[in-house]
Amino acid sequence: MCGIVGYTGSRSAQEIILKGLKRLEYRGYDSAGIALSFSDRIEVRKAEGKLLNVEKVIEPEKAVLTTSHAGIGHTRWATHGAPTTQNAHPHRVGHVVLVHNGIIENYQEIRERVLESGRKPQSETDSELFGFMVLDEMEKGAGLAEAVRRAFAGVEGRCSMVVLSEKEPGVVVGVRDGSPLVAARDPEGGAFFASDAQPLAEYVKEVLYLENGDLAVATSKGLEVRDLKTGARVERASSPLEWSPERLEKGGYSHYMLKEIHEQPATLIDTLNALVDRKEALAPFQLVQGKASELLEKATEIVFVACGTSFHSAMVGKYWIENFARVPVHLELASEFRYRKPVLAPGTLLVGVTQSGETADTLAVLMDAKQAGYATLGITNVRGSTVSREADAVLYTAAGPEVGVAATKTFTGQLVALITLAGFLASRNRELTTEMRSSLFSQLIRVPHLMTDFLEENSGLGSSVRKAAVALQNVSGFFFIGRGTSYPIALEAALKLKEISYIPAEGYAAGELKHGPIAMIDENMAVVVLAPRDSWRDKTVSNLEEVKARGAKIVGVGHETDQRLRQLCDHWIPIPELKMGTESIDESLIPFFVTPVIQLLSFELALLKGTDIDQPRNLAKSVTVE
Ligand code: AGP
Questions:
Q1: How far is CA 324 from CA 295, 428, 588, in A?
Q2: For 118, 253, 432, 598, which has the most beta carbons within 10 A of its beta carbon?
Q3: pLDDT tens, 513-549?
Q4: What is residue 447's predicted lDDT score, i.e. its pLDDT?
Q5: Quick check: 581 pLDDT over 70?
Q6: CA-406 nearest atom, ligand 1
Q7: Which of 26, 27, 256, 356 to mutate to test the pocket of ligand 1 (most atoms within 8 A of CB)?
């Protein structure tokens, strides 16, 4: 939920930490801070709000602070304590200074102990309390690394910490136990820490994904990893970094979100290339990942667990798998499922869909299921993420780094992984012939071309998406309605719009409107009707008529040549026909065309509202709290 950066070595720590925090700001941005270590002191600077405010604070003293060669930084998404400067990290307790990501569950008990000893924490956070614990251990004679290790034994919860002490200038100690933390050796001497690999891409070619229960000690000479329980040295292999620093820039777009929407055709191709053997013409949708194939071969039922946008892609996946493979699929919100007493059939495969691979609720369900003896599969975009280590097998989407907090291209990457699962299971169950699968596959690999054309046509002033957004910017709210796979896309549309524009919006299965929500409809409401020409189109058009009769402004999203639909709508956003040359495209692939429409519409409305599109208020990209 929060972003951590740490560094020690020969470079300017200030520069590395500020740049690194900028890359991690998507993880939380309600306050930020930096601590820089000198031979005789540690300087801590922090501020409420975005990182920019910390940069302003340190601006007058930048020349001095830049001479430090070790330090830590943090960008916060508040859990314990309001997002104030006082609660911002780093926290100082005596000569100990630390940053923390995660939650200390027994913080009340620790706080009481601290208060009983006559000392008073300066903040309302759970994090600062760990500083007291480290300080106590150092006062008993332990060095910094050993003190952190011993103190951590008294912590319950999922955390990562990075700690400095004025008694040991240049030493930076990191702990990973639940929340993510990567480390890397600096080729110029020294080492880095970060919550994910993105900030390190411009300095190193490989990183160490620390394991839960690892304690890493960085000095100007390098990096050593120890076991948090025993203190014994452990070896951790490095993994190559696949993301080049350029992929983290906006690349000429005004916003990361817009860039990422436009990267979806590439995501589709890259994810397919990563998941299946394209040369195996006779076996379309066969996965290259052996362990995942093994689990899928045995699965009698599938339970998808996910949150937010990933839940919506999983719903599309459910429709696809049931349709193509006739395998029973259940869809569960991770945050509900884990606290119920669900009944799972023997042979059930639990599939966690999570772009970050770090969502606490999704992970908890997978871990509980694994413990209960069920097979688990993760679908994630982040190598080295917790889900990739905890699940029995993992399928990686290849969306590359997604910086905008609102998920766009990772959603498309998930759709690709899910249609691949559907194709795989259809083959296993002999529900689709090889010819049918080959045909679906060859249509799928052509979708990116159509998507690219659509995205180009729908960018800029004259686009139908922009026109609809301008006309509807002042309505009181939006409904998105659809049937079949357009229902989950309607849910995703409403989530996207709420997230980045704060405009009230709801997604409904079109057939559900008359069971209540239609009472909300009047002339101040806009209804976006997702009615592509598929098996559900006519029914959806009937629902359109119902809301039109009650005065709502109608935005139709349908196929270019659907004149009848077009005439019923106040605003019209056409999607490409289900044709490539003379060949028709299976209606199952429609989500790949409707998704960019709803993403661009949300983007345009948010632009008109003037909100912070890449970093919407109150959100964070990776939700590592329950
Ligand atoms: C996406 O736009 C949202 N910010 C959010 O709903 C997200 O999809 C959800 O938190 C799940 O994240 P995950 O895919 O990383 O598990």
A1: 18, 11, 10
A2: 598
A3: 989 888 888 999 999 999 999 999 999 999 998 888 8
A4: 87
A5: no
A6: 2
A7: 356
